[in-house]
Design goal:
It comes from Acrodontium crateriforme. It is an enzyme of class 6 (ligase). The chain is of the alpha+beta class. It has 3 domains: about 100 residues, Rossmann fold; about 70 residues, 2-Layer Sandwich (Dna Ligase, domain 1), CATH 3.30.1490.20; about 230 residues, 2-Layer Sandwich (D-amino Acid Aminotransferase, Chain A, domain 1). The protein is built from 13 helices and 24 strands. Helix 5 packs across helix 6 and helix 7 packs antiparallel against helix 8. The longest helix is centred in the middle third of the chain and has 21 residues. The model has no long low-confidence stretch (mean pLDDT about 95).
Length: about 425
């Protein structure tokens, strides 16, 4: 590989804008081509948005990468990884390194039944569960199951395939919706029915080369649309990091009982994990338990965690691909960070697109950032909305309270009709 990285970054969310922003700061990075990108990546130095090829068309991506002398692939979202983009590049453009797992390793997110069976094989603490591909069998089970349950569609459902029924009728309705009505398409051909755990949730993003792990500060997401954790689930309405709800002793326990055994287990089974493993955990009275794995950076966790990273992200990505992560240290700021997501009116239901926006310039010197998600930049320089989660304000501060206050001031830079956001991000830590 030439010393300069010419990166192909896949995705168009807030996570990808944050990755582009962080990677562009590296002296190792020459250019970043973002497929398809958004209004935020369009304005990042060294970055260009590419809409002439589709993120799903692996052959076209390889052709584009080869003709533009790109040498490093960074898939942002889960869908291309689950579809095997890393394997395709390895076969058709072996000179290009990829920070992201193989198709088999991506099943840790792509199939909830696969990941639960994996946890059972490797004694990784998780909720009691049973997997079903038969609607009739699942129906029989919910009538006799001895604990409160969660029902999860097996496949990718954009973070919405998890249902918490309050009673037997709701459980039966959920099974019908997922398995018979195909509410989530093929993602619902099988389900996991598991024990409903209680306790605070925590997200940990860990870089891995297949052997070693380096984790970013633990974050806490806010999944529900409404203040006080009310209303329907979303892809995530805001995060803060590090969360004080997890102690140093608990983090050490998570490393020892969850993260390292997960990486070791994948290696032992012949699909070592290179990329970012995002582990969602619940801190129960019986210790930390895994809720789910994701095989890529979180969104909006990345927006909170990456501004706290002082190390060169590109250097860490290269080390992960080269198997030399153990020789690297992650330098983390002692600050706290908070991200507030601004969504379109109506989200997570139906919402308008194409609404004109005003976005002021944040003072990055003062630790205030704006990360775009569902935005586009027109030829005339006008930003418009193009998604449900539109944009986010992030801030860092010496204390969590300072970071939260600055993030909400950052929201004041954003204006568009119908915008909605939670007013209580980090409320669990600031009680």
């Amino acid at each position: 590989m030439s010393s300069q990285l010419r990166i192909l970054l896949l995705g168009n969310g807030g996570r990808e804008h944050t990755l582009a922003w962080k990677l562009a700061q590296s002296k190792l990075v020459d250019e970043i081509h973002v497929v398809p990108g958004n209004g935020g990546t369009a304005a990042v130095p060294k970055c260009r948005n590419v809409t002439s090829v589709s993120m799903d068309d692996h052959a076209a991506l390889v052709k584009y990468a080869a003709s533009n002398n790109l040498n490093f692939l960074v898939p942002g979202p889960e869908a291309p990884l689950v579809a095997g983009v890393a394997d395709y590049f390895k076969e058709h453009l072996p000179s290009m390194k990829c920070f992201g797992p193989s198709k088999t390793a991506a099943q840790m997110e792509g199939s909830k039944t696969f990941s639960k069976d994996f946890m059972e094989r490797h004694s990784i603490p998780t909720a009691e569960f049973k997997n079903f591909d038969s609607y009739e069998e699942a129906l029989k089970y919910v009538e006799v199951v001895p604990y409160n349950i969660v029902i999860k569609a097996d496949g990718l459902a954009a973070g919405k395939g998890v249902i918490l029924p309050q009673n037997l009728d709701e459980a039966k309705a959920a099974l019908k919706e997922i398995m018979l009505d195909k509410e989530f398409g093929d993602a619902g051909s099988s389900v996991v029915i598991e024990e409903c755990l209680e306790g605070p949730e925590v997200s940990i993003l860990s870089l891995s080369d297949g052997t070693s792990i380096l984790s970013l500060p633990p974050a806490q997401d806010h999944k529900r649309i409404g203040d006080g954790d009310t209303g329907p689930n979303t892809g995530g309405m805001g995060t803060y990091a590090p969360t004080p709800l997890v102690s140093k002793a608990q983090l050490d326990e998570i490393d020892r009982t969850v993260l390292q055994p997960t990486i070791d287990g994948m290696k032992a089974e012949g699909f070592p994990f290179c990329g970012c493993l995002f582990t969602g955990l619940m801190l129960t009275e019986r210790g930390p338990k895994v809720l789910e794995y994701n095989v890529r950076f979180g969104d909006p966790e990345s927006q909170s965690c990456l501004p706290l990273l002082k190390s060169d992200l590109a250097e860490l990505f290269v080390a992960a691909c080269d198997g030399t992560l153990a020789s690297k240290k992650v330098e983390i700021s002692s600050d706290s960070s908070c991200t507030v997501v601004v969504a379109a009116g109506g989200y997570p239901g139906s919402y308008a697109k194409g609404t004109p926006m005003k976005v002021g310039s944040p003072n990055e010197q003062d630790g205030v950032y704006v990360f775009h998600a569902g935005t586009t930049l027109t030829g005339e320089g006008q930003w418009k909305t193009s998604g449900g989660r539109v944009i986010a304000a992030t801030a860092t501060g010496a204390t969590l309270k300072e970071a939260v206050d600055k993030a909400y001031k950052g929201v004041g830079l954003i204006e568009f009709e119908g915008m909605q956001y939670r007013k209580d991000i980090a409320h669990r830590a600031l009680k």
